[in-house]
Structures are given as structure tokens and as C-alpha cells.
Specification:
With about 300 residues, the chain is of the alpha/beta class. The protein is about 45% helix and about 25% strand.
């Protein structure tokens, strides 16, 4: 078995049970992953040490992080050039009220800020490659490009051309931002994998995450030519436990898919979604009263 060395940055709470939980889950899967613990970037020295380890390994599993926190911004800024980061991806799960209904999945992919001196065409070419590779790792067959107008969309042209050349199994369709805003809630299947601009991406993300729903889970990834970062995001629930491991496990699903470990990713996804859907030992982030250790045990029993 080939072992992958992955940098692991704990949450800002630095809870050991969360770190132990993800280690136990990946070990039980037999995923062949060695997690190397890095310090949370509280200080400039910790930030430098963490970034050095991430650059050395080229892959990191981080969090949970508070969305758009200062620490996340610092990490992204330090790693942008060394890892060639061009692409940001949100992976959002909405759980229905009945455990026997399917989980709603939304993948939202948009570009990071264009590098100075880089043409828009070249910027989109780099972005298109990473975005379509993300769709391929999620085993998607259809991607939806969202822009203002179909007929003069540079983004659509580049995505369609890249798909035809390098990802012929992927079908590219177009939707305007107005159509998405109107129909996203009622036609989630059509908008299962969205590729768009940074501005529209933030609008759609706010719309998706602003939807009132009892159980939601979210992870975020950054992709580049030299590496990738997989982040767990803290939920907005003010009662969320400091040791809640659910989002970190969702981020690990993205990590496993990126590494080409589809069977392990599917097993982790199924264990995670079944545990949440059937209200098994949930933390207060999902309306339960159990600890993160209890929740991890429920996951391990399903792996």
C-alpha cells in the first residue's frame, strides 16, 4: 500500500478528541493516510510552521474553521502562490426530515482572485482544469456554468472547450444567475454541480446557506496546480460543540476523492450521512445532546 502524508491542522479549539476521531476513521477505512499534525495559526510562527508542512506535503486537512475567519484568510494568502490555488469549492449537504429521503447535495465551484498580470483567458483556463477535475472526482456527468449571459460568456466558452478536449464524459450546460436564483431551491438536481465567477459564487452560496433547514453540513476545498486544501466549516449554530467532528469527516470525503480513493470516500460518506439522517448520537450542532466522541463511535460502527 502507498501511504499519503497529509498535513492536519486542528480546529481553533484544538480538541484532541476531534483529531483522534478523524485518525480512527481513516485508519479503520485502511485509507493509507498518515496525518501529520500542524499547529493552528494563532501566531506568525505557527502560521509559518503550518504552511511549511502543507507546502511540503502539498495536501492539508483543516478545521473546523469559522467561515471567512482571519486564520483562513492568512492560510489562503500564504499558500496561494506555492500551491497555485485557482479554485474554491463548497460542498453542502442538506438533510431532509425523513431519513428515508435522499440527502440533497450541492457542489459550488468558483474562481479565486485573478493573479496580477495574468490574462482573463489564461486565468479561466487554469480555473477550468481544476473545476472540471473536481467534477470528475465527484463522478458527475453534468456541470452547470452560471454567468450573466450565455452568448458572450468567456467562462462558458473556456469551460466547454476544456471539457470537450480533456473531459469528454462531462456534459456542460448553461444557466443564467437569474435562473439559478429563481429555481435553485426547487430544482436542486439541475444545479448539483455549479461552476461560476467569484461574485456569483458568493451570491449562490449565501442563498444556499441562508435556507432554513434543521440539519446542514458544509466543507470547503481549495484546488491548485501544486496541491489542495480541504477545510471543515463551522456551522452557524451557536450551540455547536467544540469537539463536533462531522464537518471534518465531510472534508475528508473530499480529500479521499481527490486522492482517487473512491471506495473509501463512499464508505465515509455513507457512514456520515446515515448517522446524521437517523439521529444517531448527534451533537447539539444537529439538535442532539451527545459528545463528539459519541458521534465518532457511531461513525466507526458503520465503517
Amino acid at each position: 500500500m502507498t501511504f499519503e502524508r497529509i498535513a492536519l491542522l486542528p480546529s481553533r479549539h484544538q480538541d484532541e478528541s476531534m483529531t483522534q476521531g478523524i485518525v480512527q476513521a481513516l485508519d479503520k477505512l485502511g485509507a493509507g493516510i498518515i496525518l501529520q499534525l500542524a499547529p493552528y495559526p494563532h501566531t506568525p510562527e505557527d502560521l509559518e510552521q503550518s504552511c511549511d508542512l502543507i507546502i511540503d506535503n502539498q495536501i492539508a486537512l483543516i478545521g473546523p474553521l469559522k467561515e471567512e475567519s482571519l486564520e483562513e484568510a492568512k492560510l489562503r494568502s500564504q499558500l496561494h502562490l506555492p500551491l497555485g490555488l485557482t479554485t474554491q469549492c463548497y460542498y453542502i449537504l442538506h438533510f431532509p426530515s425523513s431519513p428515508f429521503q435522499p440527502v440533497q447535495e450541492i457542489n459550488l465551484v468558483f474562481d479565486l482572485t485573478k493573479a496580477s498580470g495574468l490574462s482573463l483567458e489564461l486565468h479561466y483556463q487554469q480555473f477550468a482544469q481544476q473545476a472540471l477535475e473536481a467534477a470528475q472526482s465527484k463522478q458527475k456527468r453534468i456541470v452547470t456554468v452560471v454567468d450573466e449571459n450565455e452568448h458572450d460568456s468567456v467562462l462558458l466558452d473556456v469551460i466547454a472547450r476544456t471539457a470537450k478536449q480533456d473531459f469528454p464524459e462531462l456534459q456542460v450546460q448553461f444557466s443564467s444567475i437569474d435562473e439559478v436564483s429563481l429555481h435553485l431551491a426547487s430544482d436542486a438536481e439541475r444545479y448539483n454541480f455549479i461552476i461560476t465567477h467569484k461574485l456569483f459564487g458568493k451570491i449562490i452560496k449565501n442563498q444556499v446557506c441562508g435556507k432554513q433547514i434543521a440539519k446542514r453540513l458544509c466543507a470547503k476545498s481549495y484546488f491548485g496546480e501544486q496541491g489542495a486544501i480541504f477545510c471543515a466549516l463551522e456551522l452557524t449554530n451557536q450551540l455547536q460543540l467544540e469537539d463536533d467532528p462531522a464537518a471534518l469527516m465531510l472534508a475528508s470525503v473530499n480529500l479521499l476523492e481527490y486522492l482517487g480513493k473512491e471506495n473509501e470516500a463512499e464508505a465515509m460518506f455513507n457512514a456520515l450521512t446515515q448517522t446524521i439522517a437517523f439521529d444517531d448520537r448527534l451533537t447539539c450542532a444537529f439538535g442532539g445532546h451527545h459528545s463528539g466522541t459519541d458521534f465518532t463511535q457511531a461513525i466507526l460502527e458503520r465503517l
